[in-house]
Amino acid sequence: MKMIIDTHAHLNTDEFKSKIDDSLKLLKEHHVDYVIVVGMNHEANLRAIKLAFQHKELYATVGIHPCDIKNEKIEDLIPLLKEKKVVALGEIGIDLYWKKDNLEDQKKIFIQQIELAIQHDLPIIIHTRESFKEAYECVLPYKGKVRGVFHSFSSNIEDAKRAIELGFYIGISGVVTFKKALELHEIVKEIDLKHMLVETDSPWLAPVPYRGKRNEPAYTYYVVEEIAKIKNISSDEVAKITSNNAKTLFRLEI
Ligand SMILES: [Zn+2]
Q1: Measured in angstroms, how far is the CA atom of residue 10 from the centroid of ligand 1?
Q2: pLDDT of 144-185, one tens digit each?
Q3: What distance in angstroms lies between residue 97's CA and the mean position of ligand 1's atoms?
């Protein structure tokens, strides 16, 4: 199979501590060549950068996750954005599942980070949970100025079209392998591959046949296979096009 890029994994969490080498070995066995390690707060951001420096197949992003805004400072991001293997600002956005009482603060921090991404000419990785509309409305005024992905997309086909209309990619995670993910199946069927990235969000959201276990970046393989099945095309085609999308969005020199 052609090259696969996992565009969203948290190898910088405790779940992977001391197990990185096993995860990297597993990648090779599943045709996954590169992984973007996504930051969420200062500690995770530093760990993502460190990993990217240690391993040629890893890249890093830095950002303040909407669930982490309380103890984080935007200023801490600025020097990190200039690090060589930092390829995006993320993950950032709005979360109305875990936190409902601080929407205005979430919006403020999200918008500050969108502007920071524009200043640094970096794409953004957007987290939404029960909050597509709110996140979309924050991005809309910057249409054409900011690029990025709505990661682990979990809304409906209309919202997927709105995201694409903004010039954004849709991140497809292992949820696509779940039988009951009917809206996501519809999105994968309807939307052109040129608008899609593949990802795991590991250690979370493990796909079938590993559902309920710790997810691995290597399992992007199953996401690719499922998309191919739904679209009735070859896995090679899915791998090739989604990897090219990732290379373009994150300007990976590979
Ligand atoms: Zn994530």
Answers
A1: 7
A2: 999 999 999 999 999 999 999 999 999 999 999 999 999 999
A3: 14
CA 8 to centroid of ligand 1, rounded, Å: 6
Contact 57, 35 (CB under 8 A): yes
Q: Report the helix count and the strand count for the chain, using DSSP H and E.
A: 9, 8
Q: In which order are the strands placed within the sheet that holds 4-9?
A: 4-9, 32-37, 58-62, 86-95, 124-129, 148-150, 169-172, 196-198
Structural domain of 181: 4-250
Is the pLDDT at 132 greater than 90, yes or no? yes
Residue 200 CA, ligand 1 centroid: distance in Å? 9
76: domain CATH number is 3.20.20.140
Q: What is the pTM of this model?
A: 0.97
Among 27, 39, 35, which residue's Cα sits nearest to residue 59?
A: 35
Number of domains in the chain: 1
